[in-house]
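User: I'm preparing a small set of examples for a lab meeting where we compare how different chains pack in three dimensions. I only have the primary sequence for this one, and I'd like the structure in token form so I can line it up with the others. Please keep the answer compact; I'll paste it straight into my notes.
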Amino acid sequence: MTGNDLPGALSGIRVVEVAGEASAFAGLLLAGMGAEVIVVEPPDGHHTRGFEPFLDDYPDPERSLWWWHYNASKLGVTLDLGDEDDRNRFRSLVATADVVLESERPGRLAGLGIDHDTLRADHPELIWVSLTPFGRSGPRSQEESIDLTVLAAGGPVWSCGYDDHAIPPQRGGGNQGYQTGSVFAVLSTQTALLARDHSGQGQFVDVSMHAAANVTTEFGSVQWLVAGDEVQRQTGRHAAIEPTTFTRALSADGIDVNTGFPPRSARDFAVVVEWMESLGLKDDFEEFFFLEMGAQLEEDLHLSQVGQDPEVTAMFGAAREAVRFISENITAYEFFIGAQERGLAVGIIYSPEEVLADPHFQERGFPVEVEHEDLGRSFTYLGAPYIAPKSPYRIRHRAPHIGEHNSILPQLSQVGQGEQT
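Assistant: Understood. Below is the structure token output for the 421-residue chain.
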């Protein structure tokens, strides 16, 4: 079988997703893994269909690129959950599902009689995944929140920004707060599915987006909780208690690159020595002696020694500066390729368009063409976020139009749990 013929990891799993801005990415990932994801939206369409940008700048609920991206590979039905008949249809739909995914305000679905406690009572094998700002219980469960406040209150914003602290902290773009929560929701869904294979029982999964954001703060939260120390944001570098070496550089062809690999072993130093010699830069770098010292190390350096041990500090600083020196004397792409060939972690600071044009991303199939037969055109989408040869991730088709798959609803009594329609 070819990669295109192989089933996804979640093939045969049906997910009913209540359309929501915060959980849309989780549904996208599950659909990419092969699950049949049915997104339920109001009769007039979900409000995210109004999010810019629009195809050809023409506002239309079927032309929102936000909707296209987050709902690719999904099927779409419309139900008015405020209407009793449609609530019954929703109950019937859930009865055919393996997973329900939602990010509704705590209490809303319970007030309609279609929450997890009510519907899982008759379907104990059902997995219900709820994604909310602070979890579904506790003193903050009813607080309003948006992606910005998820990131700010969760902690990542404190660590993001520039060395100049006169500039405020910076929020990462692209719905990172919602997406971080969605990743935890997907991991939890997979875990619950594995557990159900053994127990036959489903679970209720309660994902707090703020908690998910908080555990991704690296040193930030741990440093504060353990030692009471605050990390400080730095330009293009991990936040740290003490300032670290500046890592961004301008290559010979005027493109920004990140040079920040931390040299620790004799092998790391030897690689930098060889690279400089191969480029004929040895005699132009005054601290080359310290690189040669590092190449003779018998034990790896520890970052805790930097600033404490003069020799370690000199070797570490020389290696960081040497990589920077190399980057400034060759093109950005030569720098990237040369580092990759030597196992050094560096990167080019790309624009989104440059990412899609990079031959490495193209070779791994990251940009993919998705046919929009309704428009007689295809469009470039972001493809697989990971490579799994035996259970590939793929975008199978465009996002659904409003109510495009409503024909599923009358057939629900004929559809068994987990079967494809």
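A couple of notes for your slides: Residues 412-421 have pLDDT under 50 and may be disordered. The chain is about 35% helix and 15% strand.

User: Perfect, thanks.
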